[in-house]
Amino acid sequence: MTNAPTAAICLIGDELLSGRTRDINTQTIARFLAPYGIPVREVRIVPDEQDRIVEAVNTLRAAYTYVFTTGGIGPTHDDITADAIAAAFGVSIDEHPEAAALLEERYALMKTEFTAARRRMARVPDGASLIANPVSGAPGFQTGNVFTLAGVPQIVEGMLGDIGHRLQTGEIVRSVTVRGADLREGDLAEALSELTAQFEGISIGSYPWFRTVNDHGVALIARGTDEKKLGEVRDALEALVRAQGVEPECLDGEA
């Protein structure tokens, strides 16, 4: 692990692997972390199997500054993430009194029975701290460097509001985009390799788009923390596009 903070995401759920549910949480979490200078370096999707969750969480938490898990903390039989996190850290799991009180109050307001199944959502690994859930009430929790969130995208977004103050910040990665209409990646490949070697610390990606036969081209995106060097790369990319006989369109950020 380096001094610069990094993150990984572990998406939990058979529904993701089967294709029944589309992943939105990766984008939400990555965009949330970007202003803190914390890049997401790895994403895994694992089934609702405790051994697989434990293995993934232990591997990721050893390799990255922070790990975000999503899914599996609801009231049903296949919501086993809390137990898996406890097993990963080698601690017991118990009902958290504050979480139980929050849930009991919420269900009372909804005039809904606080059943034993719903009470399961108050169980958290020993030593974990709660993550507020302004959307549905049932909290997530933080265990060490692992943040355990719900799977519903709106709830994930809400829970992230209680996480920013817990994070170590790093250098913010900025980006510039140079777009060229009618360009083809193959015509740029050699020159892009040379630029990548020339500008150490700046990553350069090539992303073609094709909407119609009259609307296609390549977007060149450079990312890095050194603003001066990033400006030099932008100028070089614009020159590269012009050398192909195309007037470049330059944007701050990605497009």
Report what the structure shows.
The mean pLDDT is 94. The strands form three sheets. A six-stranded mixed sheet has the order 2-1-3-8-7-6, with helices on both faces. Helices cover 36% and strands 26% of the residues. The protein is α/β, with parallel strands linked by helices. The longest helix is centred in the C-terminal third of the chain and has 17 residues, at 227-243. Strand 6 and strand 7 (140-143) form a beta hairpin. It has helices spanning 14-18, 25-33, 50-63, 81-89, 97-109, 116-119, 153-160, 185-198, 227-243; strands at residues 7-12, 40-46, 66-70, 93-95, 123-125, 129-131, 140-143, 146-149, 174-181, 203-212, 215-224, 249-252.
Secondary structure: elements and pairs:
Elements: E1 7-12, H1 14-18, H2 25-33, E2 40-46, H3 50-63, E3 66-70, H4 81-89, E4 93-95, H5 97-109, H6 116-119, E5 123-125, E6 129-131, E7 140-143, E8 146-149, H7 153-160, E9 174-181, H8 185-198, E10 203-212, E11 215-224, H9 227-243, E12 249-252
Parallel strand pairs: 1-2, 1-3, 3-8
Antiparallel strand pairs: 4-5, 6-7, 7-8, 9-11, 9-12, 10-11
Helix pairs in contact: 2-7, 3-4, 8-9
